[in-house]
Amino acid sequence: MKRLLITAGTIVLLAAPAMAQSGAAGGAAAGAVGGAVVGGPVGAAVGGVTGAIVGGALSAPDQTRVREYVVKEHHPSVKVQEDVRVGTVLPGTVTYYEIPNKVGVKTTYRYAVVNDRTVLVDPATHKVIQVIE
Hints:
- It is a single chain.
- The chain is an alpha+beta fold.
- It has two domains: 2-55, no CATH class; 60-132, no CATH class.
- The protein is 49% helix and 13% strand.
- The chain contains three helices and three strands.
- The protein has a three-stranded antiparallel sheet with strand order 1-2-3.
- The longest helix has 33 residues, at 23-55.
- The protein is globular, with a radius of gyration of 18 Å.
């Protein structure tokens, strides 16, 4: 058990620079390290994928900037039957808007206003990545 803890600590220290990255890459690195500690190689694979998904979300300051921009733009909300949450695939009736560089948020995702909520969406899959509160 002691050897496992020392090994886990070493892995975390070696991966710290990667874990400091923001976004999907940092999330993937952190998830892979955490998964490896718990479940070995299979845990690393699962943790990396999960970390990348969670890591793709905007930080709190970026959420604030996007929210302020969306309020100024005032796009109409689209009503959908689906429960709007992370992982929901939105129908084709939803319009996605680019987040311009002037907002100061770097992302390949788009935003949409759905059921009176602003969501961050992967335009390739139409999947909700984050609900911006």
